[in-house]
């Protein structure tokens, strides 16, 4: 079978059978037939299929399976109550038309690494667990890492209940429809207290590793990042009869704000993206009454991020005054800078024979958990750097190198 989302096989290489089989089984779930991208959104049918897959993988291996109060899935080797567990995993949900690797590579590699540990005859002295965190991308309800944020106490049950998707369905209702109890969600300090170290393997979302001879790297830090909703309120009117000088067109203000965001980010060495937009009434021959644009912004430090977003907001308001458009800005989420635990990070780099250590601009459950437990990440080389797109890819040899690296790390952390 050839497929551009399959890890690319190198001639003569015998791929890890368990990795291959798992990858093949996951591949069709939630894949859109026309775009080839993944639409695995929280609490949908595709999400349920991914969850069923995770559970089946756990049970096939004789692992202890559990779902926590926030819908995160866990597979245990050893006694969870013993504490100081070594945990690995990632997520299975996707952004709209996402790639096959962001999330699933970490989950599949976790099971494959466990298989490798077993085939090595390794004997863990500590409990090991694999995890699939729910709703990491926030594609449906707008907030990323909902499963890990809830567990870590960084999102309250009330805040989560208030989240709504684009159709107005609340997170609580969506959970209920999927057979989960939304009243049970909330902080889970007891479960997190069982974890001695959490290691998330992830495809790299850039090309830093591609510029080295290394297929696997270790994360140093995650840039602070957040999402802001910009509402541009104008006045609906006829596109054919309203004189230009009489218009209050929020599309103009929005367009200028997009350009300003790019300029401010470039000047500050930051990132700013309007990747999602909603328009009302959304008619070809009507001036919009409302444009709603979501800004995703990230920077090397929190001060720079605050300055960039502040400047973008100022630019929007100033332009709005010229256009007769009122601008309101709502911060929908914010994740502070994450500096991964230095001891664990250095230990991983040592276990992997001097793997490169690199920062990332992408958010992860590992970043959320890092406030509660020692956390680290492994990145697998991405030859194009493309991510959050169906074109995301990695070479099969590199994926298998990732599995071996993760197995080495788990063995180093849990077996000695
Ligand atoms: C998650 O992938 C994010 O960085 O938004
Ligand atoms: Mn992602
Ligand atoms: Mn991810």
From TrEMBL:
Positions contributing to Zn(2+) 2 binding: 102, 137, 388
Domain of life (superkingdom): Bacteria
Gene3D superfamilies in UniProt: 3.30.70.360, Zn peptidases
UniProt keywords, alphabetically: Hydrolase, Metal-binding, Zinc
UniProt: allantoate binding residues: 227, 285, 298
Amino acids binding Zn(2+) 1: 91, 102, 202
Binding note for cofactor: Binds 2 Zn(2+) ions per subunit.
GO molecular function, one term: hydrolase activity, acting on carbon-nitrogen (but not peptide) bonds, in linear amidines
Short name of any one Pfam family annotated for the protein: Peptidase_M20
InterPro entries in UniProt: Amidase_Cbmase, Bact_exopeptidase_dim_dom, Peptidase_M20
Cofactor(s) in the UniProt record: Zn(2+)
Family: Belongs to the peptidase M20 family.
PANTHER family, alphabetized: ALLANTOATE AMIDOHYDROLASE, ALLANTOATE DEIMINASE-RELATED
Protein name per the record: Allantoate amidohydrolase
Annotated source species: Streptomyces sparsogenes DSM 40356
């Amino acid at each position: 079978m050839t497929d551009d989302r399959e890890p690319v096989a190198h001639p003569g290489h015998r791929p890890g059978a368990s990795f291959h089989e798992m990858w093949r089984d996951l591949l069709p779930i939630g894949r859109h037939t026309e775009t080839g991208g993944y639409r695995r959104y929280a609490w949908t049918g595709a999400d349920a299929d991914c969850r069923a897959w995770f559970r089946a993988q756990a049970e096939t291996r004789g692992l202890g399976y559990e779902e926590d109060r926030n819908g995160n899935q866990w597979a245990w080797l050893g006694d969870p109550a013993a504490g100081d567990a070594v945990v690995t995993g990632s997520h299975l949900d996707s952004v709209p038309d996402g790639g096959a690797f962001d999330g699933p590579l970490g989950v599949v590699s976790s099971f494959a690494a466990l298989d490798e540990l077993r085939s090595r005859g390794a004997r863990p002295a500590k409990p090991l667990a694999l995890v699939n965190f729910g709703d990491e991308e926030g594609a449906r309800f707008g907030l990323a890492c909902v499963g890990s944020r809830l567990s870590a106490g960084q999102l309250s049950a009330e805040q989560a209940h208030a989240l709504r998707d684009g159709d107005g369905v609340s997170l609580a209702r969506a959970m209920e429809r999927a057979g989960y109890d939304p009243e049970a969600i909330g902080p889970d300090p007891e479960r997190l207290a069982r974890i001695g170290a959490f290691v998330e393997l992830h495809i790299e979302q850039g090309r830093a590793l591609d510029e080295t001879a290394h297929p696997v790297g270790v994360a140093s830090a995650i840039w602070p990042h957040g999402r802001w909703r910009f509402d541009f309120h104008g006045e609906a009117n006829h596109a054919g009869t309203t004189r230009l000088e009489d218009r209050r067109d929020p599309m103009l203000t929005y367009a200028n704000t997009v350009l300003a965001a790019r300029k401010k980010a470039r000047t500050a060495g930051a990132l700013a993206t309007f990747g999602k937009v909603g328009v009302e009434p959304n008619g070809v021959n009507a001036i919009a009454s409302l444009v709603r644009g979501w800004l995703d912004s990230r920077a090397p430090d929190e001060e720079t991020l605050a300055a960039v977003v502040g400047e973008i907001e100022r630019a929007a308001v100033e332009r709005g005054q010229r256009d007769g458009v009122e601008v309101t800005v709502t911060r929908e989420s914010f994740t502070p800078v994450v500096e991964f635990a230095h001891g664990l990070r250095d230990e991983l780099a040592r276990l992997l024979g001097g793997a490169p250590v690199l920062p990332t601009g992408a958010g992860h459950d590992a970043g959320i958990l890092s406030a509660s437990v020692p956390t680290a990440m492994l990145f697998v080389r991405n030859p194009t750097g493309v991510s959050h797109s169906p074109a995301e890819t990695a070479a099969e040899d590199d994926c298998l190198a990732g599995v071996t690296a993760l197995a080495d790390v788990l063995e180093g952390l849990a077996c000695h």
